[in-house]
Amino acid sequence: MEFWDPHFHIWDISSKTPSGHDPSVLFAPHGREIYGIQDFEKDLDDSGFNLTGGVFVEAVSVCHVEMDGDDYAEHCLAETKWVSEQISNSAKDYYIVSTLALENPNVADHLAKITYHEKVRGIRQILNYQPSWPRNERLGNLLENPAWCDGFEKLKDFQLIFDLQINPHQFKQAAKLSDRNPETPLVLGHLGSPTLSDLKDDKIYWEGLQALADCPQNSVKLSMLSYIDKDWQNNFLVKDTVLKIIDTFGVDRCFFASNFPVELNEDWPSEKLFNAFRDLVQSFSPDDQRKLFSENAKRVYKATS
User: Fold this and answer.
1) What is the structure's pLDDT at 71?
2) Is 8 helix (H, G, I), strand (E, B) or coil?
3) What is the pTM of this model?
């Protein structure tokens, strides 16, 4: 079966890296400072699927956390340039979700520069707040920042998707943002970063998830389950959550993603990961499985081949 991966990373953390990545934050997969597109493809060889392409998702949101303004934007632009060069060396069908600080008053100029690279399909800016992922300890809840919301509204001018990484208590705020900006699809990453405690407190999680699902332009990535439980394949609550998410959004708006090399670093090589994914949806029809492993993501990210 084809797999088109809507969420993976590559990076260069060597001492003279041109990629914008921060060696003090990111790790070295297989002990190598440069984890390029060929390394990613090799890691997916054992998945049991035919990898045909996918979407690189930025890693600079967790880097250079004390930096702001146009200096930070230069790192964001450097990452997109480096990844564009990497994916040009593969015959597979790849696209890019870049990052920028949407609260930057010059964000429109930076969006014009970043979309010069024709493979850019969207923007991700990690928004997790309380618990706060690195930059947001300092920046706060950007969903409540008027300057950030103004920057978000500019995404539609460039026909970009927004990859949404937040915590469950932020779901309803994001749904209101989405309702105000229907031209900009949201792709909820990693189930919305729930913990086991979030899944047990199902009112906050499921009411918020339903609010996001009620916006027809939105979809969700089924990924990073090891964040919830490193032994998730044996956890009924986690597996039931994935199936309930598919039911909530509908099978046409969900897709599996590898989150490599992060999952590899959590002791989830591709053979183990994809066997567990297949087990989750073994009762689904072949057509629905194809949607979940390739077709939905290709449609959402506007793959052209």
Assistant:
1) 96
2) strand
3) 0.97
